[in-house]
Amino acid sequence: VTPVPREKTLDNSLALLKEGYxxxxxxxxxxxxxxxxxxxxxxxxxxxxxxxxxxxxYDKDKFTRxxxxxxxxxxxxxxxxxxxxxDGKAHEHRKQLxxxxxxxxxxxxxxxxxxxxxxxxxxxxxKEEETDLFQEAKEVLCRVACHWAGVPLEEEEVKERxxxxxxxxxxxxxxxxxxxxxxxxxxxxxxxxxxxxHEVRDGELEAEEETALYAMAFHRDLxxxxxxxxxxxxxxxxxxRPIVAITNFIAFSALALHEHPEYHRKLKTADDAFFEMFSQxxxxxxxxxxxxxxxxxxxxxxxxxxFEKGRLVLLDIYGTNHDPRLWEEPYKFxxxxxxEWNGGLFDLIPQGGGDYYKNHRCPGEWATLRVMKAxxxxxxxxxxxxxxxxxxxxxxVRMPSVPESGIILSEIKRK
Length: 415
Ligand code: HEM
Prior knowledge:
- By secondary structure, the protein is an alpha+beta fold.
- About 50% of the residues lie in helices and about 10% in strands.
- It has a five-stranded mixed beta sheet, sandwiched between helices. Strands 4-10-9 form a three-stranded antiparallel beta sheet.
- Protoporphyrin IX containing FE (HEM) binds next to helix 5, helix 12 and helix 16.
């Protein structure tokens, strides 16, 4: 048995903080291996990258999600004890609940709502000197998410709710104030949505049958019981929050349009297929989710490397999306690469890999693409704008990475 490459330093948490999205890939390159062992936050961890590693990571006989996500992530991003940490039949049953929302009709409605909400902002923008696209996208998507899910939302509360949903996401790589902000946002969000779940169950608020609100309020677990109201709220937030998080992909799309004006020109007359390729490339190229975690269910050996029971294993999302074995010139933004893509389950993994129904792959991937394409359509076909001087950089260390300036637009005009 070859010894797995082992980091000699006592703990690499600081290196992770310094190298951010490149942490795993840097070491895989140094060791000439897709797998290595290190210590993070005082725990032994196996890190791995690439398509084969991704396929391994989604082998449910080998890995469990129980106790994989640290409490600090559950108290901000995920919600405690929700779908992300479930296994086996219970997970599959819960996953069906999410997948049942993603019918073609409902996805089309989501795209239409997105277009409508963007257009509704236009008369205001035309009067403004400058518009912060990131903040606007958050609020637009918060309206879209709530409307689509059947959750009532007053115009006066849009900003606070939108900021709260984003803050839950923004906390995932943070310590200190940004983490505390995320916890506060989650407490406030859960209290709000829990109240709405109660109102629906008590018949005080009507929920349409096809909505996420209805689904979460009246779902029955394998034991035949409804979810308790806290869990129903958490799972409903697991629909609302990530729709708002698409903000980041929209901001990165606008950045890509600015950095590659040839694509901006092309998209003005492009068909859906090219919108799809562009959106896929945004999801591949820009940093958002860095890695995923699972624990070894029972010990096994893979590529001569021993995976001990209980060990935390991290799968490199960013590195796999930039693996030169999978992507020619991975650090070039090149949507046309998707012309030849075969739709692999383990190579493009910005929202996880493998099977939607049997595994943890993001159930919102189609929804994300629809919202991105509708937003991109609006940005390229419905308006013209100018991008004034600003800091257009984004960090590959801060998690999540966001465009520094938020992408400020000026001279917005409807076409
Ligand atoms: C899971 C990313 C949008 C709902 C995930 C996972 C990732 C991810 C990386 C984990 C996959 C795994 O554990 O193997 C993203 C990104 C999004 C996005 C980057 C776009 C901003 C959405 C949307 C929804 C959604 C729009 C719902 C409408 C979920 C749920 C899970 C999940 C419920 C847990 C699935 C499970 O554990 O089985 N997402 N997602 N996500 N996502 Fe998304």
